[in-house]
């Protein structure tokens, strides 16, 4: 944890008044142990201590939390609502201690109680309410919003089961249920009084109301109740404590009773089961292509609850409906919440009786949309029959939005019916489907991509026609990550050195790390830098050994690729290179190659066979390489199971080399790349996503660049790519593929990897083979650079020093300025 936090918090009498001193903490932990866990110290389990300490920390947040909520309700300020189907917040205790500045006090208190703080912190179950980058981004943004003291709320779903736990059996991924709530969640406050009803199914009727106005009534077949579950989000060393409000679904009692009264007891129970299924489980797909009814129901459920909640807060603020967009802005995290366009219209039209034009003006001024992918297979669409059966009234509204929108297009481009078809909210080319990215774009005042390259490609490809129609709506906000969790919390050794070198201000102003540049060539400073990295590698080596049984040498180059497993991210390109290295070392045992430890981590979507096969391949290579005495001290391959926020804390600080090798134009941004950079890893990467900006900031000489550019990729695929040509032209590549196909890495069973090898030879959709030669050449440059420790350390220091841009504080300031017109209130 950050060095010497005692200097950053009120000391003495003032600390005691806030209850932030060690003595009062110790007292409360003991009290809570008895009053909440019903245990006394002699029989308390480690988990009891975790709960008792967490409740004590939560108590210390409550005052700020209540104050913050009150301030927002009273003030004439706009509140940013971040709508996201995922919030991958990670373990809370360590982070809350850091942000409150009471880590040292907690350590002392626990020590006095005979407990080790780090052991207690390590017991926390991970709240895995997200898949990967998109969900973690939302969590980083909440941390920055609170730290910058901006009025904000996160809205999402309180999944009972988060992302599955990944086990590895015989080299294959096996999914296990994530029972994160089993032992209770001390951070959550359930608010049964903050609840809303959400309609599903049924039919609509239009009628004229008492004042003679046309109104639509939606008679639902089923209603679900959403109950608010709040988690505090304290800013770093500030009074602000924002809220993450997640909705859990419950059955509506009156519906049950109605059925019960007519004697249909089992029918009533059945309804209840369906309602309670809604927020049960997170869909484990990082870039979806499923079209499941329950998933659409989840999206509508949390969006409707959130918008109803915002309308209620408006009332609490004493503001009229006309002021809604002045008081709230809702950021749509990808298309998952894009049904908000239709739902806000419905609430304003049907429930508040507004006219279309006024409702539309409010809706558009309220909503803003962030796009996170260009992959056509990941762009969300919903088939009309499914949509109609679940959401008949929102569908009518979408039709009307589309009718008015296409009129506008026709007026601008008379006779251009192919443009109309391209832009329509409904794709009429096959079975008719609603295009959620179009709905989000039409219903928002701002649309943004998540890295400079991605935003340009968005304007030029997927949303080209829209950018032509409304150029002023399009923005870029390059992603960022929180330096609190991903540097101060996870890398305490380095944090101490940074405090000492540039002062403690870096944690809330990451650009101050520039002050490290002056020390990049200082031999004594370099020695300390290396010692910290080495210690972090020893810690990771311990975790690797307990997770896999494999012993790795911390002196080796730690070459790490952790992220979801996807063909476009090209873990298989990395694997091909490992096989080639293994072959080289078998042939030439004396080869002067730096000892390397390749580390992989990441989950595959349970239905994504090729991604699962890539995991099997990495484990197959690991089994062979790690058991070959000739590879001892030269090569190790690790697949670290169940990569999540918790294990990430040990992984980023221990990396020498960060693998960011996606096919150019496919990775929208990447955020792991930023976490590695902050922790002093060098990047080997393509010109893709935020890598482009990472290289700009670090300097080209401090970045290992390889591979085709986005335009090359596009041209090659347009003109006809022939993967076999690359195999024929490259002996090492052919031999690697042959060895994989031979069964060498699958215990002699040559069929296991056939689908993977054949897919590469025939299609290779993500150009792994086209980029192989350049990747291998670049890896040789990495090897040479590693042989010069002073040169490598200099580059490592400069990467950390120049990572300031990638703080989520910078990103959130940009959202505040450019998209939300929202200022911090102190
Ligand atoms: C997801 O994690 C991302 C995009 C998606 O469309 C979905 Cl469904 C999930 C990722 C991008 O792949 C990654 O490049 C980006 O850094 C991240 O979102 C946050 O913007």
UniProtKB/TrEMBL annotation:
<dbReference type="InterPro" id="IPR011833">
    <property type="entry name" value="Glycg_phsphrylas"/>
</dbReference>
<dbReference type="Pfam" id="PF00343">
    <property type="entry name" value="Phosphorylase"/>
</dbReference>
<protein>
    <recommendedName>
        <fullName>Alpha-1,4 glucan phosphorylase</fullName>
        <ecNumber>2.4.1.1</ecNumber>
    </recommendedName>
</protein>
<comment type="function">
    <text>Allosteric enzyme that catalyzes the rate-limiting step in glycogen catabolism, the phosphorolytic cleavage of glycogen to produce glucose-1-phosphate, and plays a central role in maintaining cellular and organismal glucose homeostasis.</text>
</comment>
<keyword id="KW-0808">Transferase</keyword>
<dbReference type="InterPro" id="IPR035090">
    <property type="entry name" value="Pyridoxal_P_attach_site"/>
</dbReference>
<dbReference type="GO" id="GO:0004645">
    <property type="term" value="F:1,4-alpha-oligoglucan phosphorylase activity"/>
</dbReference>
<comment type="function">
    <text>Phosphorylase is an important allosteric enzyme in carbohydrate metabolism. Enzymes from different sources differ in their regulatory mechanisms and in their natural substrates. However, all known phosphorylases share catalytic and structural properties.</text>
</comment>
<comment type="similarity">
    <text>Belongs to the glycogen phosphorylase family.</text>
</comment>
<dbReference type="InterPro" id="IPR000811">
    <property type="entry name" value="Glyco_trans_35"/>
</dbReference>
<keyword id="KW-0663">Pyridoxal phosphate</keyword>
<keyword id="KW-0119">Carbohydrate metabolism</keyword>
<keyword id="KW-0328">Glycosyltransferase</keyword>
């Amino acid at each position: 944890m950050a060095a010497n936090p005692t200097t950053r918090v009120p000391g003495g009498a003032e600390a005691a008044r806030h209850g932030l001193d060690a003595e009062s903490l110790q007292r409360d932990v003991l009290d809570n142990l008895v009053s909440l866990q019903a245990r006394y110290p002699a029989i308390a389990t480690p988990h009891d201590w975790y709960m008792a300490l967490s409740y004590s920390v939560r108590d210390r947040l409550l005052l700020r939390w209540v104050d913050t909520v009150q301030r927002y309700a009273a003030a004439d300020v706009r509140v940013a609502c971040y709508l996201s189907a995922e919030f991958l917040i990670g373990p809370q205790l360590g982070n809350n201690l850091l942000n409150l500045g009471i880590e040292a006090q907690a350590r002392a208190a626990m020590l006095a109680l005979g407990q080790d703080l780090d052991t207690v912190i390590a017991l926390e179950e991970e709240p895995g309410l997200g898949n990967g980058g998109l969900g973690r981004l939302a969590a980083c943004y909440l941390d920055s919003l609170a730290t910058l003291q901006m009025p904000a709320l996160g809205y999402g779903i309180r999944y009972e089961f988060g992302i599955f736990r990944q086990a590895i059996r015989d080299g294959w991924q096996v999914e296990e249920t994530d029972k994160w709530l089993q032992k209770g969640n001390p951070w959550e406050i359930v608010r049964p009084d903050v609840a809303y009803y959400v309609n599903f199914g049924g039919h609509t009727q239009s009628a004229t109301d008492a004042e003679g106005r046309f109104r639509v009534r939606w008679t639902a077949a089923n209603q679900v109740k959403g109950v608010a579950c709040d988690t505090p989000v304290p800013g770093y060393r500030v009074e602000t404590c924002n809220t993450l409000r997640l909705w859990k679904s419950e059955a509506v009692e009156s519906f049950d009773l109605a059925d019960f009264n007519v004697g249909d007891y089992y029918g009533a129970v059945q309804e209840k089961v369906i309602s309670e299924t809604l927020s049960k489980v997170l869909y484990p797909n990082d870039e979806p292509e499923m079209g499941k009814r329950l998933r659409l129901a989840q999206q509508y459920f949390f969006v409707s609850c959130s918008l109803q909640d915002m309308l209620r807060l408006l009332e609490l603020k004493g503001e009229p409906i006309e002021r809604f967009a002045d008081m709230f802005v809702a950021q749509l995290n990808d298309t998952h919440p894009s049904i908000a366009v239709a739902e806000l219209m419905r609430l304003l039209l049907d429930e508040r009786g507004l006219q279309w034009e006024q409702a539309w003006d409010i809706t558009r001024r309220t909503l803003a949309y962030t796009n996170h992918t260009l992959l056509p297979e990941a762009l969300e669409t919903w088939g009309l029959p499914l949509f109609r059966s679940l959401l008949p009234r929102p569908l009518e509204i979408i039709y009307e939005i589309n009718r008015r929108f296409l009129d506008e297009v026709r007026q601008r481009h008379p006779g251009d019916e192919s443009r109309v078809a391209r832009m329509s909210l409904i794709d009429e080319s096959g079975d008719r489907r609603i295009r959620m990215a179009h709905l989000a774009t039409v219903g928002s005042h701002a649309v943004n991509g998540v890295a400079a390259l991605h935003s340009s490609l968005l304007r030029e490809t997927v949303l080209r026609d829209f950018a032509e129609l409304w150029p002023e709506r399009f923005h870029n906000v390059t992603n960022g990550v929180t330096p609190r969790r991903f540097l101060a919390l996870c890398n305490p050794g380095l944090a101490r050195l940074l405090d000492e070198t540039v002062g403690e201000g870096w944690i809330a102003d990451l650009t101050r790390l520039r002050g490290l540049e002056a020390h990049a060539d200082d031999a004594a400073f370099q020695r300390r830098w290396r010692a910290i990295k080495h210690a972090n590698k020893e810690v990771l080596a311990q975790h690797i050994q307990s997770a896999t049984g494999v012993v790795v040498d911390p002196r080796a180059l730690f070459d790490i690729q952790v992220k979801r497993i996807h063909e476009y991210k090209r873990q298989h390109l990395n694997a091909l290179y490992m096989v080639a290295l293994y072959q080289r070392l078998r042939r030439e045992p004396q080869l002067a190659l730096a000892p390397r430890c390749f580390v992989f981590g990441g989950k595959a979507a349970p239905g994504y066979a090729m991604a699962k096969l890539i995991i099997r391949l990495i484990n197959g290579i690991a089994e062979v390489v790690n058991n070959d005495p000739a590879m001892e001290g030269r090569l190790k391959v690790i697949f670290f199971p169940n990569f999540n926020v918790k294990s990430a804390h040990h992984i980023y600080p221990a990396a020498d080399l960060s693998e960011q090798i996606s096919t150019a134009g496919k990775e929208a941004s990447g955020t792991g790349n930023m976490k590695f950079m902050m922790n002093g890893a060098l990047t080997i990467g393509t010109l893709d996503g935020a890598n482009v900006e990472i290289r700009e900031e670090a300097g080209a000489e401090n970045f290992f660049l390889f591979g085709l550019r986005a335009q090359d990729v596009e041209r090659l695929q347009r003109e006809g790519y022939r993967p076999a040509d690359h195999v024929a032209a490259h002996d090492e590549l052919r031999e690697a593929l042959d060895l994989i196909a031979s069964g060498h890495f699958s215990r002699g069973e040559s069929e296991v990897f056939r689908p993977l090898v054949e897919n590469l030879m025939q299609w290779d959709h993500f150009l792994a083979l086209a980029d192989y030669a350049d990747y291998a050449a670049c890896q040789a440059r990495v090897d040479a650079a590693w042989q010069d420790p002073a040169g490598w350390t200099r580059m490592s220091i400069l990467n950390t020093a120049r990572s300031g841009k990638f703080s989520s504080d910078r990103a959130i300031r940009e959202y505040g300025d450019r998209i939300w017109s929202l200022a911090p209130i102190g």
